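Exercise: predict the structure of this protein bound to nicotinamide-adenine-dinucleotide.
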Amino acid sequence: MQWGMIGGGAGSQIGNAHRVSAHIDARLRLTAGALDVDPDAGKRFGMELGIDESRAYGNWQEMLAGELAREDRVELVTVATPNNTHYEIAGAFAAKGFNVLCEKPLTMSVDEAEKLRRTVDASGKVFATNFGYSGYPMAYQAREMIRNGDLGDIRVVFAEFAHGFHALGDDQDNPRVRWRYDPAQAGVSSITADCGIHALHMAQFMTGQKITEIAAHFDRGVVERQLEDDAFLALRLDGGAVGRLWTSAIATGQVHGFGIRVFGSKGGLRWHQEFPNQIYFSPIGEPTRILERGDPALYEKAQLASRIAIGHAEGMFGAFGNIYAAVFGAIRGDDSGLGHNDFPSVEDGVDMVRAVHAATKSAQNNGAWTKLNDV
Ligand SMILES: NC(=O)c1ccc[n+]([C@@H]2O[C@H](COP(=O)([O-])OP(=O)(O)OC[C@H]3O[C@@H](n4cnc5c(N)ncnc54)[C@H](O)[C@@H]3O)[C@@H](O)[C@H]2O)c1
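Solution:
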């Protein structure tokens, strides 16, 4: 399947992860791209990656026109540009009938998110939002355990995405840090929209419950910042569970810091992204068990998401690769990619934009409970 990318140029943080992951099953092939905000750099890098000169475009508008003019146009387009461009670029490609995989956060505002959802619905095409961590085999395992009642009724979910990479106050001139705390480029929220959003999505993904209300406190450890670098959220979910999220950019010493714990009436589990091949499962009254990725006793979706035998490390490229595989199947109109088409959709993207905005509104109102439907 021919595949194109917008953004993800040389030196970008997430571009290479997409390329490795999309190619992991040798089903997709990068054949077109507008990879960089600098047209020449984008073309040059595209050709270095093996894209034909005629399809190494200078910008996304050229790519849209160029691909539309071809019989053999790309079937899937990934949007891996900065947040404030997602709405325009993903919307333009979806409106013209391309299948799209868009980076998170889906858009900057709820209004844009809803408009994009309508565009996607009208297109009838496949659209995924890259909450890529939900592609981990053990994330599917947790989802299936909860769905099958292994934990009983879910009471509490505690999610955390707290890293320490923006702990330095004198880091303000670092271009990769600066935009994240500039409302014009980052939007209403910094760390909640950047990292907390993944943990919020994972809470919904694993529990199968939707977040309905949020009470949030936003703080700035580096006080000169305009947006929050640390946040604590309380959540209410529609299946009766409550949730808590801690997200931070100033948690010195934490490297990636993404993990989740789910507690039910029959047991609890914990999973951490830095040790993604294990789930610690604690049924009430029994010793804790370590479930290993690749074990034939796991649920089928965990098996399908796994590419290598038990005991070998399998990580983020495979997780993103599973999103690509499921999207591939959905485009083909079957489940030939992953064995099912369970991937984060445009709806997940919209939900999470609402969650970020509800959290922001709550934080501005001294932590008042705020419904996602009211933003
Ligand atoms: N899902 C994840 O786990 C994950 C992880 C990191 C980043 N992201 C998301 O991916 C997106 C990109 O983040 P990043 O950290 O790679 O950013 P980055 O700043 O490192 O790279 C952005 C790339 O996009 C290019 N670009 C910018 N504007 C463009 C335009 N109009 N047309 C074409 N190319 C353009 C830049 O030249 C650069 O190559 C963001 O939305 C971010 O939130 C997601």
